[in-house]
Inverse folding.
C-alpha cells in the first residue's frame, strides 16, 4: 500500500533495500510543471526577441560594395558566385557586371554549368547570358546596376535591374 495518499511510492523500505530512489507523484508533477513553464518562457522570449530583431535586419542590404575597380581588374576573365548576396560577378574586357543567381521560377539558387546555369530544384536551364532556355523558369536571370560610390568603391543596387545583358557591363578603367 502507498504510504501517503497521492503517492506513487509503495514502500520507503523498498528504496532502502534496492538503493534506488522512487519518484513520488508530487515530484513527478513538479517536473512536468517546470518543463511546461520552461516551454512557455522559451516561446515568450523567442517572440519578444523576434520582435526586437526582425527579419529585415537579417537580410543583406540591397545595395552593396563590389570593392575598388583596381582590385576587380585583377579578377579579369573570372566569374564568381557571392553566396551572401546570391549574385554572380563577372569581370571581362576591363568591365564588370553582376547577375542574380536566384531562379525566376521559385527562387532557388542556380549553379554555374558549362552551358550557363542550371537550377537544382526543378531543372530550369539558362544560357551563359542568363536567358532561360528550358524548364519552368519564366524569365531570364536579370543583371543589376553597377555604379561608382562616393568612397571610390563600385556599388551594386539590386533594386535597379538591367534587362539587357550587353548594357549591364560597367567599365573598370580609372
Ligand atoms: S526554382 Fe528553379 S526551376 Fe524551380
Amino acid at each position: 500500500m502507498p504510504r501517503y495518499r497521492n503517492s506513487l511510492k509503495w514502500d520507503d523500505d523498498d528504496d532502502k533495500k534496492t538503493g534506488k530512489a522512487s519518484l513520488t507523484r508530487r515530484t513527478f508533477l513538479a517536473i512536468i510543471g517546470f518543463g511546461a513553464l520552461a516551454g512557455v518562457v522559451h516561446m515568450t522570449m523567442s517572440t519578444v526577441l523576434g520582435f526586437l530583431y526582425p527579419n529585415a535586419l537579417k537580410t543583406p542590404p540591397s545595395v552593396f560594395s563590389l570593392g575598388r575597380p583596381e582590385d576587380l581588374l585583377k579578377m579579369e576573365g573570372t566569374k564568381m558566385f557571392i553566396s551572401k548576396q546570391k549574385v554572380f560577378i563577372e569581370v571581362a574586357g576591363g568591365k564588370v557586371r553582376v547577375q542574380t543567381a536566384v531562379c525566376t521560377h521559385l527562387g532557388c539558387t542556380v549553379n554555374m554549368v558549362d552551358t550557363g546555369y542550371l537550377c537544382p530544384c526543378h531543372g530550369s536551364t539558362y544560357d551563359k547570358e542568363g536567358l532561360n532556355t528550358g524548364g519552368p523558369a519564366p524569365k531570364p536571370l536579370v543583371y543589376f546596376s553597377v555604379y561608382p560610390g562616393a568612397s571610390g568603391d563600385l556599388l551594386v543596387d539590386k533594386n535597379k535591374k538591367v534587362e539587357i545583358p550587353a548594357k549591364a557591363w560597367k567599365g573598370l578603367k580609372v
The longest helix spans residues 25-52. The two ends are 93 Å apart (CA to CA).
